From TrEMBL:
Keyword Cell inner membrane (UniProt): no
GO molecular function ontology, one term from the record: ATP hydrolysis activity
Polar residues composition-biased segments: 15-24
Source organism, top-level taxon: Bacteria
Keyword Iron: no
Species the sequence originates in: [Ruminococcus] torques CAG:61
Name used for this protein in its record: ABC transporter ATP-binding protein
Localisation per UniProt entry: Cell membrane
Cellular component per GO, a single term: plasma membrane
Membrane-spanning parts: 47-69, 89-111, 165-187, 193-212
Region (Disordered): 1-31
Keywords: ATP-binding, Membrane, Nucleotide-binding, Transmembrane, Transmembrane helix, Transport
Amino acid sequence: MLKKQTVNEDKIQKSKVQAEQSKPQSKDRKMSRGEILKKVFGHLGKYRIFVVFSVLLAAVSVALTLYIPKLIGYAVDEIIGKGAVNFAGIFRILFQIGICTGITALAQWLMNVCNNKMTYQVVQDVRNEAFRKIQILPLKYIDNHPSGEIVSRVIADVDQFADGLLMGFTQLFTGAATIIGTLGFMLSVDVNITFVVVLITPISFFVANFIARKTFAMFRLQSEIRGEQTGLIDEMIGNQKVVQAFGQEEKVTERFDKINEKLGSAYLRATFFSSVTNPATRFINSLVYTGVGIAGAFAVVNGTLTVGQLTSFLSYANQYTKPFNEISGVVTEFQNAVVCAGRIFELIEEIPQPEDAKDAAVLTHVRGHVLAEHVDFSYMPQQNLITDFNLKVMPGQKIAVVGPTGCGKTTLINLLMRFYDVDGGCISVDGKDVREVTRESLRCAYGMVLQETWLKTGTIRENILLGRSDASEEEMIEAAKASYIHNVILRLPNGYDTWVTEDGDGLSQGQKQLLCIARVMLCRPPMLILDEATSSIDTRTEVKIQAAFTKLMEGRTTFIVAHRLSTIREADVILVMKDGKVIEQGNHESLMAADGFYRHLYESQFLRGKDEDK
């Protein structure tokens, strides 16, 4: 006996260690700009062929664009004086300019195709990664982050990232090629004047870099506030009836105005700094152009430069400074894109729920023997919720869980389904620790009807077949009849093919709940979880549903969470929970005879019901 007890203690201690090791830790650290760019380039690596083609096409486009001013210079030099114009030479040069222009246009079009393809492939990959990550994130992350804020990251932030990435690449390749190309052409014309241009250039880099560092933090703040605003909008739209019922429209509007004001302030600060970039770089570029003009004029007077060459040089000076203007013009978009990319990468980098062990077993032929041994759990480390919880459920038993709000009833359901892992102790099904079996097989062993109904956007048929897509038409209709929703469906415009959204589209809360019940009745799982499953159904229909449930529960282990104690009188075992512990256990008669907390709860409901009838 002592040996057996020691083995159990070792098993429980081991499970506590496993729970601590497997508990995911959320990453709160913000990514630096360097880390974000590294991840962006990592995603671009898959499409390097488009990068190579884009660079080559940019080089061709820029080379021909820069060759045109040289041709223009040749054409100017063909105009020797009045009556001394070489028209044949000019026409030949114009023909060359036309060919160069046509090839340049084609190269730019193909380059834009490559940039678009590359950008939106990366964006598609990022969105897919983000959505897949949401599917495997621990429920704790979803519970702790507003749904609107998560939606903002996947939709709005990725859109901003796409715009900045596309604009950045379009300007990056052509701008870099233009700067290098113009320097080469200017060196071929005059080294001294080129030195004047290069001497003033670093000032543009200094100004652009200074502003970029300033705007990065401001755009990060702007993006975070925008996510907060999206979360509030999503929350208010989803609960507009409650807001209006309690007359909170004015307070909600005030709250929105405060967030909107913060967003406006952050936007103005970011835009102010970024808007300084363009005029600052244009001023510096004007200095470059002026320096070239003055130095070139002296060179023409001294006879070391022709008028045509000066014309070409001035054009090159303008071409050389143009990329700096364009890059400064997109610095706002690029900084915003980097910040938005950081927010979506932070979501992608979140630690997912622990994967099933490689040797995880698959639950099959489940009998429904559930055992909880010394279970501890809390949502927050410093706030204990369930402590030293023990439960033994035999196959086919109906277990009712009752108690005051916050006692841990729904938390127990979360642990049974392994939406959360226990902090200590263990829960087993048919003798197997739930952490040692696959989540999919564990959850397939349960059929769950919650108080909060959920329908997916699609047809009534798709919603009922959600848990068992291979069911026949007859089985689906039988399940709908058993849940008393069949006649309601037939009255809909397209019957079972009627399209509904998550809001139900004209279905009452009770009818939506009946659809959820039909979904479970079709699956016929070996174990059931009914969490206030009939809370939104009228009394007459509830009686019929309870009869259907009674038939469905035959031979199936069933956990029933109920506030109306009259609905669980026939349960084999009633667990009375308070402060995360089972304080009473037994059937209805024995608990009433014990004259304890359960009887107090039951009689308070019964007397309240009589008072309401009066």
